[in-house]
Amino acid sequence: MRFIKRPNDFLFHALVIVASVSLAVLSLLVIYSVVMRYVFDDAPDFVEPIALLLVIVIAMFGAALKVREGGHIGLDSLVTKLPPKGQVMAAAFQHLCLIALAVAIFFGCLQMAETTMEDRIPILGLPEGVRYCIPVVASVCIALFSLENLLALFVKKHN
Asked: Pick the residue with more confidence: 134 or 87?
């Protein structure tokens, strides 16, 4: 399991840092925007597109982090009533579904990123495809974390 656990540990900590910094920057941006708008009557126009990118980072990386921790939405009330083998099979099915979702997100967002890379985000001037690159990275993390959890199910079963 070390072959996947160690790289995923590094990836997990990197995502925690990026998501945490993004949340802090988003909070500061919102405070700055509110103060500028209501105190100085001078609303900065760059805050909204930056905030949107930060929200995408926080949501997508947060989702990946919860997959690693096993904190995603599940039907625990149903699964706990199953016999032990059924619980393992339900967890395996859940992780396979998450991997399938990650693959769909990866290819869908990769196609959107390629399609919109020539367009520019107004005010910022960044390629529009940047919005879709964030879920591409997150989907890879979701797939790796789900694979780790899936492998852990069967390593526990055989030990």
From this structure: 134
Output the average pLDDT for the chain. Answer: 89
CA 155 from centroid of its chain's CA atoms: 26
Could you tell me which of 104, 83, 86 has the C-alpha nearest to residue 94? 86
CB atoms within 10 A of CB 42: 8
In whole angstroms, how large is the CA radius of gyration of the chain? 19
Q: CA-to-CA distance for 50 and 61, rounded, in angstroms?
A: 16
**Backbone dihedral region for residue 125 (phi beyond 0: left; psi -120 to 50: alpha; all else: beta):** left
Q: What residue spans define the domains of the chain?
A: 2-158
Nearest to 75 by CA among 97, 96, 95, 91: 91
> What distance in Å separates the CA atoms of residue 146 and residue 138, rounded to the nearest whole number?
12
**Bigger pLDDT: 146 vs 74:** 146
Q: Where are the alpha helices (DSSP H) in the chain?
A: 2-38, 47-69, 76-79, 84-116, 130-158
- Say which residues have a Cβ less than 8 Å from residue 57's Cβ, sequence separation at least 6: 18, 19, 22, 134
